[in-house]
C-alpha cells in the first residue's frame, strides 16, 4: 500500500479540515424474513397496518411478501440511524400477528420448496405490477431460495462541505460533481479490493439448515441433524450458495469511472442471454420477465458496493447517475447481526464508516482483469473459509497472509478514527477499531466463530438457535412499544402510503406492456 493516504490526511490536518471527515450521512436498509412461531415462512400478506410497500418511505418489501425491508433516513450521527431502525421494529411488532416473528438471521430455514417463498406484490398499478414481474423473473433465473436471504445495506456519503476542501487539497480543477464522482469510484475500487474485511469481521452465517441447501450437502459438514456448516466459514450468505451465481460470473462491469460504469451496466441491460431467451417473456398470457437480457434492471447486478443517486419517479438508476452523478455509496456486504435485536449495532457501523473513508483516501488505480480475478477469489475464499489458520489471499504483489494484511489495514485506519473522534465524546471510533483488532488477533471472538461455538457447545440445531433468538427479540420489542408520537407518525405514514398507492392505480392509463417497453427503452 502506498503512502498517499497518510499524505492526504496530513494535508487535511494541516488545513484544519480533518473534522470535515466526520458528519457523513449514514442510512440503513435492513431485510428480515417474516416467519411463523413454528418456524415456517409466513404466507400472509404484508401487514396492512405497516403501510403500502410500493409507496412507504421506510417499510417496504424486498423479494418476497414475507421479506420486509426497513429503510432509515440518512443521519450524521449513526446512533440516530440505529435509533430510527429500532423505532421501526418497535412499531411493526405492535401491528404484527401474535403468531409471526422476524427471523434473526440472514439464512432462511424451513424452506420446504421454492413455492413456500411468496413473491412480493405491489398492487394493480403498472409500476407495482412491473416490480412483481421483475421478481418473477428472478425466480425463473435464480430460484427463490437465494432471494429469501436477508442482509443489511449501509448507505454512506461524505459531508457536502468536505468535497470543496478535499478538491482544493488535491489540486484538482473542474466541476465539483465530476471530482466527487471520481473520488467515489476510487473508493469503490478500493472497497472491491479489500471489502472481504467486512464478511471476515461481521459475517454471521457460518451454518445453514439442510432445507436451504436442497440436497446440495456434499462439501458441507453436518454439525447435527438438520444443520450443516463449514468450520472456518464467515458468511455463507456471501458465498456461491448465497449471492454469488454463475449467470453473472461473465458479466464485466467497469469501475474505472462513472461513464464506464453506466455504459457497462446499460450494455448488460441490452444484451440478450440465451438461457433467459429460452425462458421467454410469457408463460401463456402471464408475463414472467421484464426482458431476456443479462440484466432485467440495474438492481439485478450484485456487488459488494454500489454507487447510488436518488431517482425521480420512473427514472432508471443508471440515467440518474449519468445525469446528476454519485450521491452516496451502498455497502451490501453486511449479514444480519443475529446478536442484535434489530440486526445491526452501532460499533460495527462506526468501523464500516471508517473503513469506507480509508478506501476513499487510499491510492486507487484502475482494476485490471488479473486483479478482478483475484478479488473474486478473495471474496469467495473469505466467505467459505475466512478463519482458516494461516489463510492467504491474492494481493497485487502476490499471495499475502490474511491476518497480517487485515491488521495492517486496521493500523492505517487509526488516524482516520482519531479524526472522526475529534468531535465526539470519548473515542467511539477508536473503540470500534480496537474491538475488531482484538477479534482479528483472537478469531474465536469473530461473530461467525461465536455462532458455531454456541451451536456446538449447546448441541443446538441452527434452526432452534435462530428461532430462540427471534422469539426473544420479538417478545422484548413487543413489550417495549414506541412512544405515542412515534406510533402516531408511523400510523400516519402507513395511511398516507395506502392513499398514494391508490392514487397511482387510479391514474394508470397505459397498457402494461407499453409501460414496460417505455421503461426499458429509457
In what order do the strands lie side by side in the largest sheet?
3-4-1-6-13-12
Cα-to-Cα separation, first versus last residue? 42 Å
Low-pLDDT runs: none
Total helical elements? 19
Assign an overall shape.
Answer: globular
CATH architecture: 2-Layer Sandwich
CATH fold type: Creatine Kinase, Chain A, domain 2
Mean pLDDT: 95
Structure in words:
- The protein is α+β, with helices and mostly antiparallel strands and 522 residues long.
- The protein is 46% helix and 12% strand.
- It has helices at 4-14, 78-94, 126-142, 144-147, 162-170, 176-194, 197-202, 210-213, 258-270, 274-279, 317-324, 346-361, 369-385, 402-420, 428-441, 447-457, 462-478, 484-507, 512-521, and strands spanning 25-31, 34-36, 59-61, 68-71, 100-102, 151-157, 207-209, 221-224, 227-229, 282-283, 286-287, 305-308, 328-335, 392-395, 398-401.
- The strands form five sheets. The chain has a six-stranded antiparallel β-sheet with strand order 3-4-1-6-13-12. A three-stranded antiparallel β-sheet has the order 7-9-8. A two-stranded antiparallel sheet has the order 2-5.
- The two termini are 42 Å apart.
List keywords for this structure.
522 residues, alpha+beta, Creatine Kinase, Chain A, domain 2, six-stranded antiparallel β-sheet, three-stranded antiparallel β-sheet, 46% helix
Summarize the structure in short.
This protein has 522 residues and is α+β, with helices and mostly antiparallel strands. 46% of the residues lie in helices and 12% in strands.
Amino acid at each position: 500500500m502506498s503512502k498517499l493516504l497518510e499524505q492526504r490526511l496530513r494535508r487535511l490536518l494541516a488545513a484544519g479540515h480533518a473534522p470535515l471527515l466526520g458528519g457523513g450521512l449514514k442510512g440503513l436498509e435492513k431485510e428480515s424474513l417474516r416467519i411463523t412461531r413454528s418456524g415456517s415462512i409466513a404466507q400472509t400478506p404484508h401487514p396492512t397496518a405497516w403501510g403500502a410497500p410500493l409507496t412507504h418511505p421506510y417499510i417496504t418489501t424486498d423479494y418476497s411478501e414475507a421479506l420486509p425491508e426497513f429503510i432509515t433516513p440518512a443521519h450524521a450521527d449513526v446512533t440516530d440511524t440505529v435509533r430510527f431502525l429500532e423505532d421501526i421494529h418497535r412499531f411493526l411488532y405492535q401491528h404484527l400477528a401474535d403468531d409471526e416473528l422476524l427471523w434473526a438471521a440472514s439464512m432462511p430455514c424451513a424452506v420446504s420448496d421454492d413455492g413456500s417463498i411468496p413473491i412480493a406484490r405491489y398492487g394493480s398499478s403498472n409500476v407495482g405490477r412491473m416490480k412483481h414481474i421483475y421478481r418473477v423473473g428472478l425466480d425463473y433465473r435464480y430460484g427463490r431460495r437465494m432471494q429469501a436471504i436477508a442482509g443489511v445495506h449501509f448507505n454512506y456519503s461524505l459531508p457536502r462541505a468536505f468535497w470543496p476542501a478535499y478538491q482544493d487539497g488535491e489540486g484538482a480543477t473542474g466541476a465539483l460533481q465530476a471530482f466527487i464522482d471520481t473520488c467515489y469510484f476510487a473508493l469503490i475500487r478500493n472497497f472491491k479490493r479489500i471489502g472481504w474485511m467486512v464478511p471476515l469481521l461481521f459475517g454471521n452465517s457460518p451454518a445453514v439448515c439442510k432445507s436451504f441447501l436442497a440436497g446440495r450437502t456434499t462439501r458441507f459438514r453436518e454439525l447435527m441433524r438438520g444443520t450443516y456448516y463449514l468450520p472456518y466459514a464467515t458468511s455463507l450468505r456471501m458465498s456461491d450458495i448465497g449471492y454469488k451465481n454463475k449467470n453473472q460470473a461473465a458479466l464485466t462491469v467497469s469501475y474505472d469511472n462513472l461513464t464506464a460504469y453506466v455504459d457497462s451496466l446499460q450494455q448488460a441491460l441490452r444484451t440478450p442471454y440465451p438461457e433467459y431467451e429460452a425462458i421467454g417473456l410469457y408463460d401463456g398470457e402471464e408475463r414472467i420477465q421484464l426482458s431476456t437480457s443479462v440484466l432485467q434492471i440495474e438492481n439485478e447486478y450484485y456487488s459488494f458496493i454500489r454507487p447510488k443517486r436518488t431517482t425521480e419517479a420512473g427514472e432508471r438508476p443508471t440515467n440518474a447517475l449519468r445525469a446528476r452523478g454519485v450521491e452516496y455509496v451502498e455497502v451490501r456486504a453486511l449479514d444480519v447481526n443475529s446478536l442484535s435485536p434489530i440486526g445491526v449495532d452501532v460499533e460495527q457501523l462506526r468501523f464500516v464508516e471508517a473503513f469506507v473513508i480509508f478506501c476513499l483516501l487510499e491510492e486507487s488505480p484502475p482494476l485490471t482483469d488479473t486483479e478482478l480475478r483475484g478479488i473474486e477469489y478473495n471474496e469467495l475464499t473469505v466467505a467459505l473459509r475466512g478463519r482458516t489458520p494461516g489463510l492467504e489471499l491474492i494481493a497485487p504483489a502476490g499471495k499475502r497472509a490474511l491476518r497480517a494484511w487485515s491488521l495492517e489495514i486496521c493500523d492505517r485506519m487509526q488516524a482516520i478514527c482519531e479524526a472522526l473522534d475529534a468531535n465526539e465524546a470519548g473515542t467511539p471510533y477508536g473503540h470500534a477499531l480496537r474491538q475488531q483488532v482484538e477479534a482479528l488477533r483472537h478469531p474465536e471472538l469473530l461473530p461467525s466463530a461465536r455462532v458455531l461455538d454456541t451451536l456446538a457447545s449447546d448441541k443446538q440445531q441452527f434452526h432452534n438457535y435462530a428461532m430462540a433468538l427471534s422469539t426473544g427479540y420479538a417478545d422484548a420489542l413487543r413489550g417495549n412499544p414506541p412512544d405515542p408520537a412515534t406510533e402516531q407518525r408511523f400510523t400516519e405514514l402507513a395511511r398516507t402510503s395506502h392513499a398514494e398507492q391508490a392514487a397511482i392505480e387510479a391514474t394508470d392509463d397505459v397498457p402494461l406492456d407499453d409501460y414496460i417497453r417505455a421503461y426499458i427503452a429509457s
